[in-house]
Design brief:
Blueprint lengths: L35 H10 L16 E4 L2 E5 L12 H14 L7 H5 L2 H14 L3 E5 L2 H12 L5 E5 L4 H9 L3 E5 L4 H10 L7 E6 L11 H10 L3 E5 L27 E5 L9 E5 L1 H10 L1 H4 L6 H16 L1 H20 L11 E7 L1 H13 L2 E2 L1 E3 L9 E6 L6 H18 L2
Parallel strand pairs: 2-11, 4-5, 4-6, 6-7, 7-8
Antiparallel strand pairs: 1-2, 3-9, 8-9, 10-13, 12-13
The structure holds pyridoxal-5'-phosphate.
Amino acid sequence: MASCGGLDNKHPTPHPGTENKEKSTGQASVSGFDDISKQLQQRRDEHLYRSRRVVGSRQGRLLRVNNKELVSFCSNDYLGLAGDERIAAALSEAAQFWGVGSGASHLVCGHTDAHHQLEEELAAFTGRSRALLFSSGYTANLGVINGLTGAGDFVFEDKLNHASLLDGGMLSRATLQRFRHKDYQHLADLLDKAANSEARKLLITDGVFSMDGDRCETAILADLARQHRAWLMVDDAHGIGVLGATGTGSVDPALYNEDDVQILMGTLGKAFGTQGAFVAGSDDLIETLIQEARTFIYTTAMPAAIAAATSASLAIVREETWRREHLNDLIAQFRDGAEAQGLELLPSVTPVQPLLLGDEELALKVAEILELSGFMITAIRPPTVPRGTARLRMTLTAQHTGDDVTALLAALERALNEAGA
Ligand SMILES: *Cc1c(COP(=O)(O)O)cnc(C)c1O
């Protein structure tokens, strides 16, 4: 089965042609790339072709696409902060002071007061000793897994973990074992098989699964990690800022300290509305990553102004609790309304609310009809999700109104009828 993040399905077919390469003349008449246009066509035929939409307005409730205003139900801007005036002002002000470029990596001369202050604020926010900034969540995950594990070690991952976690596990040369989604008995069995090994064992999970919206069971995972002397890493890209009264996410620091969840990763491009990511944990963890995480060491530091803007955002995330309260009201309204209409949503209590349609062509068609009715929602298809589980991934944000949700539900009903779903 294809998997989240496309591990098994990079190309729709194996490349034909590789076997008829000319031998030994030193000049191949057939290039291994001869089939790329055919491959693209096959992608189109299978309704798996991906393309970008050009957006002509800032992120928010409304997006301008092809000169038309659409109500956006597809961003990860859960708290509605990506277009916030105050954060934009903090960015401009900091850019006047720091300029734009950071000049070098953190270890050379790119690590400024602004970065350092944000790291301290994120450590305090998550109840950890230290935090370390990365330029993106994708690179944070590659860096952490590769910085901590190698040949002979074990990495255990939920099958629906984000592509960056799966890629990190594969790159690490550790033994990568994937357990069935949230099947912690399966995980326990895999851990038992590795019980005699004194190698490092790293359990990795999404806090909120990005394409399904359901949550990991942090308590069960922390117990399993303790029993097996493993470390637990939670990628809380979709939970941080959103879950919990003050937005601390899937790993409430009042319940789980850094001995329970040793590695907490959060991204700044989703609820925080800026860019980048952080890893939080013990002093030894952070010092090890500074020495070993290649995606931290060998890359230019994020602009200091982005760090300063993120500090402004963090203050808003903590203080404006109404954003989470309103979001939770919208989630409840959407789920109640969908249930009343007989729509089967996946079991999600988060702003990620997917409607499973199965067929790729159908998912595309419903998304198209919704766009004609003024809604922007993306059809998510393999290999981002397993084959046969194409879906509309709807996301709610604190900028939506109750009326938006009512209108979305009505439009969904019409679009599903029209598409023959
Ligand atoms: C978005 C996401 C990432 C990647 O974060 P970026 O900052 O966008 O690179 C990592 N993990 C999960 C679960 C995500 O949803």
